[in-house]
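[#protein-structures] MJ: dropping CsbD family protein here for a structure pass
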Amino acid sequence: MTEDNKAKNKFDEAKGKGKESLGKATGNEQWQAEGKTEKTTSKLKQAGEKVKDAFTSDDEPR
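AK: finished. structure tokens for CsbD family protein:
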């Protein structure tokens, strides 16, 4: 996984978690749903990158 993608996905996950928490604290259901969606999407992207990494190797000639 490229470091840029990894950092962006982690940032998006944290942002989603924060938005979800803020939504819970304020009773804003829309923010809760958006935060949960952002968090889940980020985790899926991270999993996809890990699968892609498992099938590629830095040792292969390009």
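MJ: nice. The CA atoms of residues 16 and 35 lie 4 Å apart.
AK: one more thing. The chain has two helices and no strands.
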